[in-house]
Amino acid sequence: MASTSVMISHLNLCNSRFTRLNSSSRRASLQINGGKPGFRFLGKLKLRRISCCAVEDAKENQQLQVLQSGGLGSTLEERPNLADNSAEGTIENVDQDAGSPIYDFLYPDKELLPDDKEMSLFDHLEELRERLFVSIIALGAAMVGCFAYSKELIMILEAPVKTQGVRFLQLAPGEFFFTTLKVSGYCGLLVGSPVILYEIIAFVLPGLTKAERRFLAPIVFGSSLLFYSGIVFSYLVLTPAALNFFVSYAEGAVESLWSIDQYFEFVLILMFSTGLSFQVPVIQLLLGQTGLVSGDQMLSIWRYVVVGAVIAAAILTPSTDPLTQMLLAGPLLGLYLGGAWVVKLSGR
Fold first, then answer.
1. I need a labelling partner for 324 at 20 to 30 A (CA). Which of 65, 118, 242, 339 fits?
2. Above 80 in pLDDT, residue 84?
3. Eight-class DSSP state of 107
4. pTM score of the predicted model
5. Where are the domains of the chain?
């Protein structure tokens, strides 16, 4: 330590002497090197660089000895405290997030996960490809089977207005053929939907927890039941009411000669939109199960739901008559209130 201090003081003294010597001989140096400005201060820069490097090396050696004698130990003792504080803050944030239902859904405990075989990404993609292939085959087979009985299906869908004396016309070549294709497509989708739903569930099921698996069966069964109930309700109530309104309104003024393509487009869209609108309780149960919305909150906004049901009925129904809209808005409102009470009674 003493030798290092003496060396530093000696180098500083040499540097100061060089500075004074250079200042006293600056005038002579300028006269000698006046014609070469690039080499005017070359000697000064070299000596100053050497002295500065020596001082820096001595200071680094001195700091290294201080750190080895005890300074490094104190520094390392203070750093874990900062790390502990940041770790504690991180743990607190994780604990706060762990109480949320979304966090529990995205990051379930390992104890809740079933003992299934783990698969790689390529295995999942291969399974997805196979299930898509099976779904497409089932959908195609259902459409072909429905096309074989397309005329019988058309007679069934014409029944709501047959008693009113309505006649259907083919206004363009091939219109009836394309209508049968459309009816076969909708009916094939309806018949093949159980297979498609099964393939979706079989693909998603390994990623669900045990509790979510128990909750999945009632949701799927209830969703399917509500969808088919909506189609039956549309066929038995909505479609006859809307068509009878149009026929009675035009009675005595014009003869009802309808295009078969436009008629089936109206009927099929009305039936499928009604089936989709009957999924409201399923959505409510999912929101209640995840804890995003409670049953009391759903019941507290019933005034807005009334307005929303009327607007949704106006959008879903292809007709513009108020009777069809009211007939659809009533069941939508009843389904919403029923789903809200189910969520409330389930303790959510």
1. 339
2. no
3. S
4. 0.60
5. 1-29+38-76, 121-267, 279-348
